Amino acid sequence: MSCASLAKGLLDLLEARERMIAAARPLTDEERLPLEQAAERVLAHDLVAGLDMPGIDNSAMDGYALRLAELSDAGLPVLMRVPAGAGAQRLPEGGCARIFTGAPVPEGADCVVPQERVRLDASGRVQVLGEARPGANIRRRGEEYRVGDTLLEAGASLNAAALAMIASQGLAEVAVRRRLRVALLSTGDELIEPGIPYETGQVYNSNRVMLQALLAQAGCEVIDLGIIADTPAALHQAFVTARDRADLVICTGGVSVGEEDHVRPVLEQLGGIRFHGVAIKPGKPFAFGYLDDGTPDGTPLIGLPGNPVASLVGWQLLARPFVQGCQGGEVAALQQFAVRAGFSRRASPGRRELLRVVLDWQGGQPVALLAGGQGSHMLRAASQAHGYLMMVADTDVEEGHDYPYLPAGQFVG
Ligand SMILES: Nc1nc2c(c(=O)[nH]1)N[C@H]1C(S)=C(S)[C@@H](COP(=O)(O)OP(=O)(O)OC[C@H]3O[C@@H](n4cnc5c(N)ncnc54)[C@H](O)[C@@H]3O)O[C@H]1N2
Ligand code: MOO
């Protein structure tokens, strides 16, 4: 989208995202962890294979290992039994071996025939039914990778399969990047914590638990500073405390333009703003800057809007890639593909709107339907959406036309 069509003073979403990614300075501190504590952490160094995989030629099936050249109508006697875990052995001439999945293929054998494809005659000799091919059902030593190969690159996120692969190398520990320490604070005198009796005009703090969950999913250590009073002095004090304890400060609310919105002026006093305002709906009053001298040597601060869905979108599209970059992880490009809209909707002037939608499969094709109310305070649709249908600023959605769809799954973790 050209900048000319953006609402005045607002950055385009993709430019703001690029700026956040470029601003991230990867943490260099690392720690060694037992594998059972390393799930979803970021690998600190390339992982190089110390063992061939598989380590031996082994059977992929329960069956019989044999020499193809010795097969005849007379069948082969079973001369040995090789369970998984057995040591190296040689197949005697003129016979075959009973073998099990994962067991070492005895030297000399060039094929494993699954037990379903043999018949044992009255004397217990093995007759192969159908054709047997050289090398069939033998998993060769090193066929997946060899000693010295790079298995994972530094920055990889340790998912369950990655942890299993590290374990399969015989390693009990792994070096990972230290968790990013994030100070989290909510502003707003109307806010009360869940569990407290409600009085008219008050608002339960829903951003706090949402961001705690999102930060935990992203592998951060959360320093929760709770609700801060809506005064410049209280916010000033909270930012100083946060700055001294954390690598990054995230606050929600008070980031718009009213006289009750103190985030921007206090950030300007204590450091400097890099940008404020992104041409998206929800999520417009997103702010990014640094405490201390306002340069990247200071502590970064992200101001998310108070409206809960605006806060969620600001996290997913802008704050999360910054956090991933700071953790030394990979920041994937936004995943999107075209999906048909099952509704029509008027455009927002000057902002891309991210509609919370569910996919309905109609005749094998996905069709996007609104997941519910689209106000930036409406959590119900956000909690049920499968993803976002991204509208172009100033362009209406017309039912039956295709639009970019961003699956929500890409924002998890
Ligand atoms: N004159 C203008 N007014 C507003 C503009 C604007 O450009 N000009 N922008 C609007 C947009 S867009 C948004 S988004 C909001 C964001 O405002 P703030 O970030 O300053 O947030 P608050 O005013 O503090 O709160 C907005 C809304 O969200 C509720 N809230 C705040 N914190 C929480 C929380 N932790 N949990 C649940 N709900 C929260 C708060 O009660 C308000 O209802 O500004 C528009 N206004
Ligand atoms: O950008 Mo705000 O999030 O529309 O409500």
From TrEMBL:
Its EC number is 2.10.1.1. It is an enzyme of class 2 (transferase). Residues 183-325 form the MoaB/Mog domain. Pathway: Cofactor biosynthesis; molybdopterin biosynthesis. It catalyses: adenylyl-molybdopterin + molybdate = Mo-molybdopterin + AMP + H(+). InterPro entries: MoaB/Mog-like_dom_sf, MoaB/Mog_dom, MoCF_biosynth_CS, MoeA-like, MoeA_C_domain_IV, MoeA_C_domain_IV_sf, MoeA_linker/N, MoeA_linker/N_sf. It comes from the Bacteria. Its cofactor is Mg(2+). Keywords: Magnesium, Metal-binding, Molybdenum, Molybdenum cofactor biosynthesis, Transferase. Catalyzes the insertion of molybdate into adenylated molybdopterin with the concomitant release of AMP. Belongs to the MoeA family. NCBIfam families: Glp_gephyrin, molyb_syn. This is Molybdopterin molybdenumtransferase. It comes from Billgrantia campisalis. The lineage of its organism: Bacteria, Pseudomonadati, Pseudomonadota, Gammaproteobacteria, Oceanospirillales.
